[in-house]
Amino acid sequence: MTLWTELEGLDYSVRHVQVGEWSTRVLETGAGDPLVIMHGTGGHLEAFTRNLRALGEHYRVIAYDYPGHGWTTTTARDLEIADYEEHLLALLDLLDIESAHLSGESLGGWVAAKFAAAHPERVRSMVLNTPGGTMATPEVMERIRSLSQAAADDPSEERIRARLEWLMADPASVTDELVAIRRGVYSRPGFAESMRHILCLQEPEVRQRNLITDDELAAITAPTLVIWTSNDPSGPAGAGIDMAERMGQGRFQFIDKAGHWPQWEQREVFDEVVLDFLGENR
Which label site among 117, 157, 194, 215 has the fewest CB atoms less than 10 Å from its CB? Predict the structure, then answer.
């Protein structure tokens, strides 16, 4: 089954909306309370395609590509966390969403946490899925930078697959279709330059000034589920446990046999855990 045939029978839309300077690709499906889905560094909304049917049965799901990512406008300048926060705020305003549930993976979790600390009135609850923003491990940062830039400079099947396999517990989880989708994104004119600006967060000095502080974690009032996995390449599960403990309403959930994308490799477990949590905080 392919990513898009999984959505057969669903009503969904994919469109571009102008959010400030960014022509932003947005997918919507379902109805009810808004649930905003946020992907990782160098990613795109297809990272959550496998979850849209289950989540859309209960929520108005909004998935989007960040500035410089996916099929949203590429960037000619460095993007730090405040840029992604500003874009998210403007997107919510454009869509007339006063407050939403946020589900962020990796960079998405980093942005969501910072956003929730700065705009608590706009966040109902959060799922932080293998989130970034609390660690600055040089070897991990260099691995992300080298694999990502190599894939953008030469979007061959081999380099794209290497970047995606790094995310997974089981390399076989990387399908030919996922590789083809990402090759299409990374082959866009200007995307290699855009990637260089996206990856500024992997530079030690830039990363340090963007990290989530203990004060910010303490300022998060929204109920928050932090998900970590058995094979996450970005760091140990203890980082997720510590993050959850520093929030007033934080909770930790471990998912086995998954890497950086539990929503992809363990979709049924992920969907069940997320829906149970969101259902408690509607």
Answer: 215
Helix axes 81-94, 107-118, angle to 10 degrees: 70
Tell me what pLDDT residue 6 has.
78
Closest by CA to 279, choosing from 128, 127, 147, is 127
Question: Please, what is the angle between helix 191-198 and helix 138-153, to 10°?
Answer: 170
The whole-angstrom separation of Cα 45 and Cα 95 is 17
User: 130, 230 in Cβ contact below 8 A?
Assistant: no
Q: What is the pLDDT of residues 182-235, one digit of tens each?
A: 999 999 999 999 999 999 999 999 999 999 999 999 999 999 999 999 999 999
With contact defined as beta carbons under 8 Å apart, do 42 and 67 qualify? no
Q: What is the CATH number of domain 5-136+213-280?
A: 3.40.50.1820
∠ CA 50-55-56, nearest 5°, is 100
- Residue 100 tokens read as 């939403």
Cα angle 121, 64, 44; round to 5 = 130
User: Which residues, 6 or more positions from 253, have their beta carbon under 8 angstroms from its beta carbon?
Assistant: 225, 226, 227, 228, 273, 277
Alpha carbons 255 and 13: distance in angstroms, whole number? 31
